[in-house]
Design goal:
It comes from Chelatococcus asaccharovorans. This protein is α+β, with helices and mostly antiparallel strands. Helix content is 39%, strand content 25%. It has two domains: 206 residues, Beta-Lactamase; 198 residues, Nucleotide cyclase, GGDEF domain (Alpha-Beta Plaits, 2-Layer Sandwich). Strands 7, 8, 9, 10, 11, 12, 13 and 14 form an eight-stranded mixed sheet that branches. It has a six-stranded antiparallel sheet with strand order 3-2-1-6-5-4, with helices on both faces.
Amino acid sequence: MNARMTEDTSLSDADSSGIEPVMADVVSPANPAAIFVEPAASDAAATVASIQESLKGLSLDGLRSMIAIRDWLLTEAREKKDQTSLLTTLADQLNAAGVPIDRASMTTETLHSEHAAVTSVWLKGGDSQQRAFPYSGNADGTYERSPFYHVHQTRQPLFLDLRETPDDRFGIVPELKADGYVGYSCFPVFFANGDENGISFATKAPEGFSKPHRTFLEGIVPALAAAMEIRAGYATLDQILRVYIGDEPHQRVLSGDVRRGQVSRIRSAILFADMRSYTRLTSNMHPEDVVSLLNIYFDCLVPPIEAEGGEVLKYLGDGLLAIFRDRGDDTGSAAQSALTAALDALARIDAANASGIAGVPLKAGIALHHGEAAYGNVGSGQRLDFTVVGRDVNLTSRMAGLNKTLGEPLLLSRPFVEHLWADPRSLGFFELDGLDGTFEIYSP
């Protein structure tokens, strides 16, 4: 800790929480049992002095409470499913130990498709809140004006007596003062992968954070950092797998389905969609513009699918494959959800064309079928793909090839129609590339 922070004498060293300064009676040269590793005689005095200084002001009960919270952080806290739950329980335990916490916040960087970091805020007697920061969320320099930026740069904790802190010191100071906070502390938390995270505490106690309180908080931070990193690691793995391979596949991978050749089958309505004239539309585009066009296109398709309970299993260039699971014996609801999603997606594409947002006219070909989707681990060596295979999947994709031929944006198979409550119009029987026989095709 640097001198500027340790010499902050405005914070009271008085102990109003029962953490009285009797640490000298706990660890002293006369109490060698308190030293875990017996040093050489010439180093003993320096070792004891270092321990005494680091724990200065803590009572025996305070030390026991600090150790209990550290133990909890390294054991039960690892089971917390989310950051807010971890922060809430920690704040409750600190208050129970006599450290007056009225506000706590925890920020962690994250690998997510839509946001760069997540902040949880706990308020004593109030509801906990969580906020996600988009990748462009710091365009106004908010981070650079925050205490977190300061501790990340100094790599040292920060303690403030808000009664003596100028409003322009950090962006959050006026807000904290207005809400009645007196003391504020902020700690940097660095993960092994280089992520810069942090946690802060604020109190409305008249004396702010006393010296024993600061010592207590500093004592638990290393264990807290470990708990945060463990939880963040699992959360990141869960998020990344969900983003890139879908909800059901990611759950199967995490449960241990990683052996090549494993196959799982699911009865469902199957949706296949691709963009009409994709090659012609993008032949003269820069790659960045192609990506932008695809994102606009998928923004029309994916939200309706997810709103109807569907799952996007694969992005296939300018196409996608999604399923709507059967709900027990009620196969009609899955088919109806798929049809509703497809019609909504086409309506969104029309709206996008009317607005001109894509810069080129967008058209989609969507095919709907009902059958069996099979998940399988396919690949070689240490590089596998959790992909969707099977005759019904192939049939759905081949149907999509008829969209352009028939001039219909949405086509339905006979097995799909048999699960619908409506009576679609038959377009006739058609051959599908690579499949034997003919297939009756419908439009809604």
